[in-house]
Amino acid sequence: MALILYQRDHCHLCDLALEVLAAARTPDFESVFIDGDDALEDRYGLRVPVLRDDASGDELDWPFDAAKLRAFLPAR
Q1: CA–CA distance from 74 to each of 1, 24, 25, 42, 70 (Å)?
Q2: Which domains occur in the chain, in start order?
Q3: Which InterPro entries has this protein been placed in (predicted)?
């Protein structure tokens, strides 16, 4: 499972997503900051934070809580 959390610097919603991920003891994930990357800004600019399973391409958009996160993860 290759999880990526797309986020921005100084993003309150991203901080909340990190709290949910920590509380749910989410397996290791990579944080990718989209600031300054035109392609990522175009794709995720208004959607961050977004958790992506890079292997399948599935994405979980904010807002999510521990229950939505657990439902997203088992199929991975």
Answers
A1: 10, 13, 13, 29, 6
A2: 1-50 (3.40.30.10)
A3: Glutaredoxin-like (IPR008554), Thioredoxin-like_sf (IPR036249)
Within 13 Å of residue 31, how many CA atoms lie on the same side as its CB? 13
Q: Quote the CA–CA distance of 60 and 38 in Å, as a whole number.
A: 21
Identity of residue 34: I
Residue 42 CA, chain-centre distance (Å), reads: 16
pLDDT tens for 19-44 read: 999 999 998 999 999 999 999 999 99
State both tokens at 63.
């807002």
Reading the block at residue 46, the tokens are 């208004």
Distance CA 52, CA 12 (A): 19
Tokens linked to 57: 């391409």
Joined together, the tokens standing for residue 31 give: 């944080």
